[in-house]
């Protein structure tokens, strides 16, 4: 009976690991394609079948039994999970952190259950109905599965992997998780090979718990430091953009004073012409005067920044001013509209700045090389009851598959990585109140962010 039960021990460990992995990374799992899970399931089944065949002795090679041990299964699970679920062929840093962190926690859970086995064997030794070891194994796996589920939920709340603050932070966390895994795995492997795991399980458990606590302390300190850096950067950019906005207004004010001076002189000249008898000269002069006034008023950038006063959210106003100035400097005609006050947006400032900045940059890149008649961008910020809408539209040279463009690594621009729309999707996925809509109508590409109040 016990020999038959031993065939199920490793498969049960594998199930417990994936309970932990899925609960910790549910957001990531939900976005992955179903064919990736089919590949993962097939790979795991093949691994289990190979282990069962080896344990049954159908392959008479003694050293192959090492492939059935827990320490080898851990490595197989890491490699299989990463290769089957990664989003693209080159690398997936987020997934590597996901898998390694899940395995770090799972190793600690296994050591904790091994520690409990000592007490369980003492409690169950007097059971006569069934073999005591059978009861220990059943209780062990129930506890392991329950701990995997609850630790997955706790870990998901503590470490929101999909809320990437900065790629640099992700790389720092990745290094910490790799070092932590190497230490955990090395100690487990050493004690397993020496067959002294149960003799030192208490000390190993204490060490692993301390290491996990140390990881969370490091993570929160890095996270807090990076949030402060980003806040300071946002404030600095806001001040810089505000200065640029003020300088632009001063420049337009000087142009307006000059126009007023010229306007007065031309009125005096027109008055003299009207007094003369040659009415045709007066008509010609009047036409020239009208054309001059119309051209100046239409070309003046003063009117372009009129509606910015209605954007009361400082970080949104800052990024819109910055990108609008960049666009106009490159000869792009920007039409900005915000007719009503926008004073609150239910989204983190850094994420809001990122998605609007990415969308605006994409629009600039799309039209900068078009002919003058098509070098246009329309931006609208609209506040209605319960939500705020930000819309950015630009002409397109050719119609594109919008679903295809939202994938990471896909772009229509030469020399670009194609991470823009993919990053927008990644950021917006963390907000249940944010909707992103893409559409292409009559040669215009439009991206619309709808941010509902919480």
From TrEMBL:
Gene3D superfamilies for the chain: Histidine kinase-like ATPase, C-terminal domain
Domain Sensor histidine kinase NatK-like C-terminal residues, every copy: 347-451
GO molecular function annotations of the record: identical protein binding
Key words of the record: Coiled coil, Membrane, Transmembrane, Transmembrane helix
TM regions (residue ranges): 6-26, 38-58, 64-85, 97-117, 129-155, 176-198, 204-222
Pfam families: HATPase_c_5
Sections of the chain in a coiled coil: 232-262
InterPro entries recorded: HATPase_C_sf, NatK-like_C
Protein name, entry field: ATPase
Name of the gene this protein is made from: abpK
